[in-house]
Amino acid sequence: MNNFQQQILQGIPDHLPNHKTYDSEINHAPKRKCILSEEEKKLAVKNALRYFDVKFHKELVTEFKDELESYGRIYMYRFRPDYKMYARPIEDYPGKSLQAKAIMHMIQNNLDNAVAQHPDELITYGGNGAVFQNWAQYLLTMQYLAQMNDEQTLVMYSGHPMGLFPSHKNAPRVVVTNGMMISNYSKQDDWEKFNALGVTQYGQMTAGSFMYIGSQGIVHGTTITVLNVGRKIAKQSEDLSGKLFVTSGLGGMSGAQPKAGNIAGCITVCAEVNNKAVETRHSQGWVDEVIDDLEELVKRVKKAKQKKEIVSIAYNGNVVNVWEKFYDENIYIDLGSDQTSLHNPWAGGYYPVDVSFEQANKMMVDQPELFKKKVQESLRRQTDAINKHTKNGTYFFDYGNAFLLEASRAGADIMAENGIDFKYNSYVQDIMGPMCFDYGFGPFRWVCVSAKCEDLEKTDAIACKVLEEMIQHSPKEIQQQMADNIKWIKGAQENKLVVGSQARILYADAEGRIKIAKAFNDAIAKGEIGPVVLGRDHHDVSGTDSPFRETSNIYDGSKFTADMSIQNVIGDSFRGATWVSIHNGGGVGWGEVINGGFGMVLDGSKESEYRLKSMLFWDVNNGIARRSWARNKEAIFAIKRAMELEPNLKVTLPNLVDDKLLE
C-alpha cells in the first residue's frame, strides 16, 4: 500500500500535521464579513473542535479562532493533505467498493488546483460553491468511502459526513444534502451566519455534488446559447462571423464564455476584475488574448470586426467601463450578457466599478453596507449602458446569474412597462427552455475514471456513432438539436475542453442518454474502456426548480414551487443512482432555487444496464411531464412521443383553454 492510500485510510490523523504555508500564488476566497456575535464565535470554534481528539483542543482552539477572525470561516488549513489533489485512476484509490472509488475520483477532481476556483478553501466555483466546509470533512469523507462496502450508504449533511449506514447494493452509495434550511432562514445573511458556524454550506450545483468538470461543464450549453441567439438575430441566415459578444466573468463557470464564443465563430470580449482568474483562463487556453487598457481594447475590437476574426479577448477590468466605452466609441455590440456571480453579490460575486479589486475585497468585510451601496450603483450604471446599446439593436439576455434580479433590486431601469416582467428575457425563456429543456435535451455528462485520455476518445467516438444513427430517424422538431450535438462531439478533441478529469458533456434527450450509456456499458463489458461515471449538470430538464433560470419559461404560476427537483432526486434514488444530491441555492442564489443531481457508475454489468435504463428515463421525463402540464407546447410534443415509446408511461396531459373565454 502506497503513502497516498495510507493517508486516505487514516482519515483525520492521530497527530497534528505541520502548519501549511499560505500559498499566495493560487486564487483564494475573499474574507467573509464578520457576522457572528462573540458567543456565536465561540460556538463556531466549538463546532470545529468536535472533529478532533480532546488532546489537540488546547493547541487548535487558538488556531481556529485566528482563522475565523482572519478569513470569516474555519477552513482548518493545517489539515489540507500533503499529496497533490487531482483525479487519479480509479485503481489508485483504496477501498472495497468500485462505486466508492469512483466517487473519490470525482471529489478530488472538484478540488484540483487546475479546476477549483478557491482550492484551499474547498470552493469549486461561483465564489462560494463548496465541496466541503473544512478539510476535516474531506479527510473523514474519503476515509469513509475507502472503508465502505456495497451494502452501506454514506450520509452527507452539507459537507459533513454523518456516517455509514446499512442499506443494500441497489441503494445510493452516497446521499448528499446542502444548505437545506428551514424556509424562513434562507436569506443571504443566513448563509453567512450558519456557514460561519460550520453547520451548513452552499453546494452551488455540481460543486457539492462532486460532478464539476471544469468550464467544459457549460461550454456546450453556452455554445448552443450563442449559436441560437445568432440564429435569432440573423437577417439573412448569416453566421456570427464578425459579430461582437460582450460579457463578463472568467471564474469557474463563466470561464466557458470565450471558448464558446470561439466555437460559435464570433468576437468575444469578456471582462474580469480578478487578474488571477484572467491568468488561469489564458494559461489554460480558454481565452486567446488579454488586454488591460480600454483604448487598446477599442482598437483591437475594431480591427477584429473589420477582419471578421474569430477571437476571444479577456479585458482585465470592470465590464461597466466596457459597456460605457463601447457606446462612446460607437462600437456596435451584437450580443450582450453577463455572468458574474450575482447570486453572491455582497461577498465577491460582483465587483463595483471605479473601486479596485483589492479595495473592494477590503470594503466588503470592513464596510459591508458601503460595499452593497457601491455594487448597486454599479448595477444601475451597467444597466443604463446596456439600455443605450439595446436601443441601437443589441440583443441582451440574462445568462442565469441573477443579473436582472439584482439589478431590479438595485433600482435599475430594468423592468418592463407592466412593472412585473424584466425588459430582457433570460436565455432559458428565449433559448434553452423552448429549444432544449422542453424537448428533453440537457447537459448529459460522463467521466472516464480510468483517467486515460484514450478512453475519452473512444467514448467520444461511441457517442458520435449513436447520434449519427439516431438522427436518421429523429422527428424534424429535434433535427437541429441532433445536428448541433454531432458537430460538437466531432470537434470536442480539437477544442481541448478537458481540464482535470477525462470528462465530456453533450446535450441529449432521454433516448440519446440511454443509448449512449448502454453503448458505454457494452464497451466496458468487452474490456474496451474502463469504468465510466454518468452525471449531468443540475441545470437540466428536471433537476432544478429556479424561477429566474431553469424554470423561467414555466408560465402557469408554478415556477416558484420545488416539487419537480425533490421528486427528481427521490426517483433517482430508487431507480439506480450511485449517489444523489439536493441543494438549496446554486446559480441564481441561496434561497432562490432548489436543485438536484446524481452520479451513476457504469461497470459493464447487466445490473448497470438495468439501472441506466430505469433512472435516465425517469430523470428526464419527470421534467418533461411537469413542463407539459405547464402547457409548454414543445414539452407536450415530447411527452406524447415518450409515451409512444414506453407503454408503461402514462402522464396527465393539459386541456388547453381558449383565452377568448376569459376576456
UniProtKB/TrEMBL annotation:
InterPro entries, per database record = Urocanase, Urocanase-like, Urocanase_C, Urocanase_central_sf, Urocanase_CS, Urocanase_N, Urocanase_Rossmann-like, Urocanase_sf
Q: Which gene encodes it?
A: hutU
**Metabolic or biological pathway:** Amino-acid degradation; L-histidine degradation into L-glutamate; N-formimidoyl-L-glutamate from L-histidine: step 2/3
**GO molecular function per UniProt:** urocanate hydratase activity
Q: How is the cofactor bound?
A: Binds 1 NAD(+) per subunit.
Recorded GO CC terms: cytoplasm
**This enzyme's EC code(s):** 4.2.1.49
Alphabetized, the UniProt keywords read: Coiled coil, Cytoplasm, Histidine metabolism, Lyase, NAD
Q: Fetch the SUPFAM superfamilies from UniProt.
A: Urocanase
Q: Which family does it belong to?
A: Belongs to the urocanase family.
Function, as annotated, reads: Catalyzes the conversion of urocanate to 4-imidazolone-5-propionate.
Which superkingdom?
Bacteria
Q: Which Pfam families match?
A: Urocanase, Urocanase_C, Urocanase_N
In this chain the Urocanase Rossmann-like domain maps to: 214-431
Q: Where would one find coiled-coil regions in this protein?
A: 287-314
Residue ranges of the Urocanase C-terminal domain? 437-640
GO BP of this protein: L-histidine catabolic process to glutamate and formamide; L-histidine catabolic process to glutamate and formate
This one is known as Urocanate hydratase
Q: Which residues form the signal peptide?
A: none
Q: Which reaction does it catalyse?
A: 4-imidazolone-5-propanoate = trans-urocanate + H2O
What cofactor does this chain's UniProt record say it requires? NAD(+)
